[in-house]
Design a protein that fits this description.
The protein is mostly helical and 315 residues long. The chain has 14 helices and six strands.
């Protein structure tokens, strides 16, 4: 008989580490899940296994109910993610014939309320760019300031995700092409517009990147990390007089979306630029744009004034 990897002769079962690895391999190969998703699922499953003394694969409803009660102090989004990871895991075990039941119904189902994104005003963004410009004007010039300008131009000017940004190849942004093609979450490709300003900033920075380097933003043997990008953006915010806890690479991506919508961008076009699979994810940005939408009705709709009067009477 061939030996099964991860098989325990004492219990006659495949142990948690092997089950989790099988599940994650399925997520990679069949579901095409993004690397960050796989990493998060792996962490959540290993923590759950540890909490159950290595008995996650054979856990029943009672064990999962206790696990859910231990999550009560966590944020709703965190509980939702952990529950989603375990549900997919137990569905996988059932599909593979490794369990005859699926106890995942005992896991908590937190509400689906979505937190509103943090938003920077256009004035806040201008202050950040002013701080970078002041840095670049100093003598002697520091190439890292040129790198920072290129990073912020791409975050705010194109709405890139942090992972997408730091892992751009050296040749990704072309001086004669106003867009780039990205492979984002789930392996989906999308076309991202690149402004003239961003292309100019990238060209100036790239002159300082050796031609044999693979990445546009190299660091050591690899590329700039997301953690380092986060640190650079928060330091710049503090320098610009903006509380650093209000700013992150993702907040600049939110600012890109919000300010585009305020400028009249089509929601479907914005969805495509951001790489959202579901338009409901993009619609969250409409909350900051209610005044513009009201003004649009007043100015463009044939019954604009009448509609406003009706709204006032109903209020």
């Amino acid at each position: 008989m061939s030996k099964v990897s991860g098989f325990s002769p004492e219990t006659g079962e495949v142990e948690d580490p092997a089950l989790i690895e099988r599940f994650l391999e399925m997520m990679r190969a069949e579901a095409g899940a993004a690397g960050n998703t796989i990493a998060a699922y792996g962490t959540d499953l290993r923590l759950a296994s540890e909490a159950l003394d290595g008995g996650l694969g054979r856990a029943g409803r009672a064990e999962l109910e206790k696990l859910g009660s231990d999550w009560q102090a966590l944020a709703r989004a965190t509980v939702a993610r952990k529950s989603a990871a375990l549900r997919r895991f137990f569905a996988f075990l059932a599909d593979e014939g490794l369990r005859g039941d699926d106890p995942a119904g005992a896991l908590p189902r937190p509400g689906s309320a979505r937190a509103l994104p943090k938003v920077l005003s256009a004035e806040d963004v201008e202050r950040m760019f002013a701080a970078i410009t002041a840095r670049i004007a100093r003598e002697p010039k520091d190439p890292n300031d040129l790198r920072l300008l290129a990073l912020v131009e791409l975050l705010y000017g194109s709405g890139l995700r942090a992972t997408e940004l730091v892992s751009l190849p050296r040749s990704a942004v072309s001086p004669d092409r106003p867009y780039l093609i990205l492979r984002g979450k789930g392996g989906r490709e999308r076309l991202v517009p690149i402004s003239d300003r961003a292309r100019a900033a990238v060209a100036e920075w790239r002159a300082h990147v050796a031609s044999d380097r693979a990445w546009l933003f190299p660091s050591g043997k690899g590329h700039l990390s997301r953690v380092r990008l986060y640190q650079l953006i928060r330091a710049l915010a503090a320098e610009a007089g903006i509380p650093s806890d209000r700013v992150s690479p993702h907040v600049l991506r939110h600012a890109f979306a919000t300010h585009l919508l305020e400028g009249g961008a089509d929601l479907r076009a914005l969805q495509a630029m951001l790489g959202h699979a579901d338009i409901a994810t993009t619609e969250i940005y409409t909350h900051v744009d209610s005044k513009r939408l009201v003004d649009l009705v007043n100015e463009r709709h044939p019954l604009g004034e009448a509609l406003v009067d009706v709204t006032k009477r109903q209020a």
